[in-house]
Amino acid sequence: MSTTTVVSAPGKVLIAGGYLVLDQKYTGLVISASSRFYAVIQDCQQPGQAGQIIVRSPQFIGAEWTYSVTIHDDGTVDVSQTSESKNKFVYYALKYTLILASERLLSVGSARSLRDSLQHGLDIAAVGDNDFYSQQAKLRELSLPSTVASLASITPFCPQDVRLDNVNKTGMGSSAALITSVVSALLLRFKVITREEFYRPDSDARKLAHNTAQFVHCFAQGKVGSGFDVSAAVFGSQLYMRFNPVLLDGLMKGGDTASRMLPLSPALSPGSHWDYRTVPIHLPPLVRLLLADVSAGSDTPSLASKVLKWRQETADEADALWAAIDTSNQTLATQLRHLFDLHERQSDLYVSAVKRMSLAPSSEVRGSALFILAELTTGGYLCPSGLANTRALMRQMGKAAGDDVHIEPDTQTELLDASIAQKGVICGGVPGAGGYDAIWLLVFEPNNGTSEPLSAVEKLWEQFPNVSPLLATESKDGGAKVEDIDKVPGLRAVVQMRR
Ligand SMILES: Nc1ncnc2c1ncn2[C@@H]1O[C@H](COP(=O)(O)OP(=O)(O)O)[C@@H](O)[C@H]1O
Ligand SMILES: C[C@@](O)(CCOP(=O)(O)OP(=O)(O)O)CC(=O)O
Asked: How far apart, in whole angstroms, are the C-alpha atoms of residue 141 and residue 251?
């Protein structure tokens, strides 16, 4: 029986540093979510499939794409899409990982191994945890209340009765997690990297997967973004400083024609030209990340180009505002670290303080309890009021950038203020670029999933139409990882599903 290669990669929430993270001077604070994307690679079951790759997303209607791979004697590789239906993200992930693999394997004298890996053809299933797509319609269909418990009870990798193009995404970064899982699984399958190397967070193998996924993601999107989503999918929660976008110029410029494309290996191999920085970070113990899917039904237009235009036109004003936002963002990161350290040093004290705080009315949380906790740490206290400050500054930036730049729209302000006023809620905001699609909160969770703050927030959100929690918490397992298909509930079943 042939082996199955499975790699998962987490979704993300940028809780601080939206827009600023596009500039190498600033960092973004990104939390990886427990919700993951899975790439499952097996040999094709039918005979006569040599050189064929089929990619399927069984959660969706009509989501199947086929490719034909030709490996020439000189090691060059052609990948052509043979299905009528196209998926750029999948196509470029396959194509550029195959080209890179061929270059790498050729250079170490094992050119045959790529052909060998494709001798039966490959079947790749790409599936995302339910959180990547809004489950509000599903919950209504099952007459279930909008709670974390309901979400935990529905079928994993729940089939969606729509085509992929029409699905309601939740903003967790499906394309970055998809590309990261597919690229990493292929590199492992083709033996360009080993499981042991990939396991290590700082290995060249993991960095190669990261660099390749960054390039593929940029190429598929047709632009070089900050890359925080791919970095979080590969390395887990972190403070992220972007790479210099110039380093991808050569590869981006060539367009999708093999003859104009530079060799990939020198550009994508780890080295000092990849000047991104990642500093791992974790939410403190007993602090839960809680996300809302705000399915307002409107597409959030891209705000980034407007914000960047404003920044260019009003350099001094913008610089001052960005510096203030950054100070506030760094303070949040420092506070999280202090609380983490406090737990390490004085865990009994920490646990009892969190218990008290999770029951305290929020004004008290803001006014005293957190203060006491933070007094015990060295860096003073700023978490909730600091975040309120960040929110105000981000709103100010939106207003300055234009009447239609709704980074924290009024409806979201109302939802956030009401949420943060609940017992035990520490702070919150609109993730990433802002807009109408989601909010994040940090709440105390003294008893692992059964805490009062969570149910209070769930009750509150019931009063807001189209607002429901997501299941995700922070990823306990860091970034991308190799999985056993039978240890992930529902994974084998969804992979075997044909629709
Ligand atoms: N399950 C899936 N299977 C295959 N491709 C997917 C899947 N989910 C998402 N994608 C790809 O990712 C694209 C969505 O990317 P994007 O609009 O950047 O959203 P996001 O913010 O979730 O990353 C889709 O158009 C599709 O090409
Ligand atoms: C503006 C940004 O800094 C943040 C965008 O964050 P989102 O979380 O909204 O990202 P998408 O998944 O691409 O929609 C752009 C960037 O960093 O690339």
From this structure: 47
Give the pLDDT confidence of 281-319 residue by residue, as tens digits: 999 999 999 999 998 755 556 899 999 999 999 989 999
pLDDT of 387 over the 70 cut: no
Residues 120 and 258 in one domain: yes
Same domain, 136 and 251: yes
- Indicate whether 89 and 132 sit together in one domain: yes
> What residues line ligand 2, using a CB cutoff of 6 Å?
14, 18-19, 21-22, 171, 173, 225-226, 228-229, 304, 431-433
Closest ligand relative to 245 C-alpha: 2
Amino acid at position 366, single letter: R
Number of domains in the chain: 2
The whole-model pTM stands at 0.95
Spatial CA neighbour of 152 closest among 125, 168, 172, 129? 129
Q: Do 234 and 201 touch, CB atoms closer than 8 A?
A: no
**pLDDT digit string, tens, across residues 143-199:** 999 999 999 999 999 999 899 999 999 999 999 999 999 999 999 999 999 999 999
Position 377 scores a pLDDT of 45
Distance 62 CA to ligand 1 centre (A): 14
Phi/psi class of residue 381: alpha, beta or left (left: φ > 0; alpha: ψ in -120 to 50)?
beta
Nearest CA to ligand 1 atom 3: 57
pLDDT in tens, 334-343: 888 888 888 9
Ligand 1 cavity residues, CB under 6 Å: 57, 59, 63, 87, 89-90, 126, 128, 164, 169, 171, 173-176, 178
CATH of the domain at 387: 3.30.70.890
**Quick one: 398 and 488 in the same domain?**
no
Clarify whether residues 89 and 171 are in a common domain.
yes
Query: Of 277, 272, 168, 261, whose CA–CA distance to 216 is shortest?
Result: 261
> Which tens digits make up the pLDDT trace of 37-58?
999 999 998 888 999 999 999 9
Q: How far is the CA of 18 from the centre of ligand 2 (A)?
A: 7
Q: Specify whether 114 is located in the same domain as 164.
A: yes
Closest-CA residue, ligand 2 atom 15, reads 19
Which residue range is the domain that position 435 belongs to? 287-469
Q: Are residues 50 and 113 part of one domain?
A: yes
Q: Ligand 1, atom 24: nearest CA belongs to which residue?
A: 175
What 3-state DSSP class applies to 220? helix
Cα 343 to Cα 415: distance, rounded to the nearest angstrom: 31
Does residue 60 sit in the same domain as residue 125?
yes
Q: What is the CATH number of the domain that holds 165?
A: 3.30.230.10
